[in-house]
Amino acid sequence: MSEHQAEKRRHLRFPPPEWEIALIQCTDAPLSEDEFEPQIAGLVMEESHVGCGLVVIQRLLEDRLAEGDRCMVKVARLGIVLAQVRWIRPIDDGVARLGLHYLDPKG
Predict the structure, then answer these.
(1) Is 3-102 a domain of CATH 3.20.20.70?
(2) pTM
(3) Which residue ranges make up each domain of the chain?
């Protein structure tokens, strides 16, 4: 079993509504709702209590986000949370999957 498969099976995943969008700000500075200025939007493909998988336009990631980077993400009713980019995988010409892991802001 690959490391990705082991990671994927550690937490229960659940399918989001088909219209659920995540908004990403490419900074890890704590923000209020009024200060949040997203630069990337992605379709939420899967969710868990520790993160989410998104489909994004690949060119929007260039020079903004890479594996290991921290960002602020807003997914549905969750509000704005600190997250880390765990993986980026191209899936088609100009389209990529993005794996985000939610982080505890205290640590």
Answers:
(1) no
(2) 0.82
(3) 3-102
What residues pair up with 102 in beta bridges, in sequence order? 83
Q: Residue 2 to residues 8, 29, 107: CA-CA distances in angstroms?
A: 10, 33, 28
Instruction: Look at residue 87 and tell me whether its pLDDT is greater than 70.
Output: yes
How far apart CA 24 and CA 72 sit, in angstroms, is: 6
Confidence label for 19 from pLDDT (cuts 50, 70 and 90): confident
Q: How far apart are CA 23 and CA 40, in angstroms?
A: 6
| The token pair that represents 19 in the structure block | 């219209």
pLDDT at 64: 94
Q: Which residues pair with 53 in a beta bridge?
A: 46, 99
Q: Which residues pair with 85 in a beta bridge?
A: 100
